[in-house]
Amino acid sequence: MAKPSLLLTFLGVHVHAAFYGPTFHWGLSLSDDIEPPAREVIQRANRDPTLTRSVPLRPFERYWGFLAEDSVLRDAEWTWRINISNIEAPDADNYYGDAIADPHVTSVTYDFSWSADGNISTALDGASGPLCVMTLQDAVDLPVAATNGYTEDNGDSSSCEPVLGRECVAALLAQVPKPRGTDCMFPIRTPWSEVPECRDSFGAFSPYGQSFMDWPLRRNVSDDRDGGRREWLSGQVFYSNVSKPLDGGNSRLYNYMANRVHIMMISVELPTGHEGQRAGGPELLCMRVNATELPEVDTDGDGVAFTYETVLESKGAQIPLLGYYRSSCLWLALCFAGVIFLIV
Ligand SMILES: *[C@@H]1O[C@H](CO)[C@@H](O)[C@H](O)[C@H]1NC(C)=O
Ligand SMILES: *[C@@H]1O[C@H](CO)[C@@H](O)[C@H](O)[C@H]1NC(C)=O
Ligand SMILES: *[C@@H]1O[C@H](CO)[C@@H](O)[C@H](O)[C@H]1NC(C)=O
Ligand SMILES: *[C@@H]1O[C@H](CO)[C@@H](O)[C@H](O)[C@H]1NC(C)=O
Ligand SMILES: *[C@@H]1O[C@H](CO)[C@@H](O)[C@H](O)[C@H]1NC(C)=O
Predict the structure, then answer these.
(1) Which of 34, 91, 155, 282 is exposed most, by the fewest CB atoms within 10 A?
(2) Ligand 5 centroid distance, CA of 253 (Å)
């Protein structure tokens, strides 16, 4: 992979540091915070990632029975894909501290693909309200015992039951009313860490944080804030997260992001065959990109082996997870589409 910055160095041009991260974005492009030379490097890496997994998904299957005869959603198979890259970033602006040797950033993207023609609204039978999406922040970790529910043996799936258990999944879904009009009925009042059926998974860890987006499925596409026509099409990124620069010898964050269970709740209100009747509601999706079965390592001796402890395998090591976002980026994301909240 050609590194523009290295090329520039070779040509004797002075290289300016560029901002890569930390930053995240709900939307069809990278965060506006990422500076142009960094954007190119990250986009190239995202398209040709270090590690990727895509799993089949029967979208909103629980509601198929209510859909119209000519529904394109019924019997549909989508895929959910996560790309993770460990990217060399020699020109990374180290905004936050001491000089770093051989800087790298970790980049994560999510996308959905479907086979029906048209954009995601068409693929959802012309649903016109918001598509509601919620993820857990990367800093929310699960015990290895839960993480290991998702291995290569059952890794061709987006089911959360092997990870969280059937009761926990049912309890989380039952908490969420179906969206109404433009209201996602998110965020949820009871944090997942306090749902009794989930005490062995989410209950084991604090702090707890969620990230939330409601995406209008029908809007004037030219309404976009930079005036462009931006449609959500099959295979297009809808979530991305780039870490702060870290020492290249330290691929721990990358390894953790690859090994952790990515959990996402999606919800939508769907049109049915009958005028004025609506179906739909929440659905929970889980995926690990690196589905290696992990040993239980409890480095801090608190009685629970967490995924980050096991992946780091060194006492006292700390995952640099609690990122300090550039406030502008955080607030832009908030204004644009989403809400982030942390319950400590
Ligand atoms: C993810 O990686 C695959 C290659 O494995 C690539 O085809 C795809 O475009 C990437 N997705 C995004 C959103 O960049
Ligand atoms: C993005 O990644 C960083 C780690 O680099 C993490 O601290 C943060 O929680 C992530 N953002 C979200 C919304 O998950
Ligand atoms: C979309 O565009 C049409 C025609 O230009 C306009 O009448 C309508 O108010 C717009 N809708 C929104 C939500 O801005
Ligand atoms: C999908 O296409 C319709 C019709 O062109 C448009 O109104 C809508 O805004 C698009 N939705 C998305 C999410 O791209
Ligand atoms: C997957 O994770 C395991 C455990 O952290 C690690 O040993 C292995 O190198 C990883 N594989 C890849 C391809 O990153």
Answers:
(1) 155
(2) 12
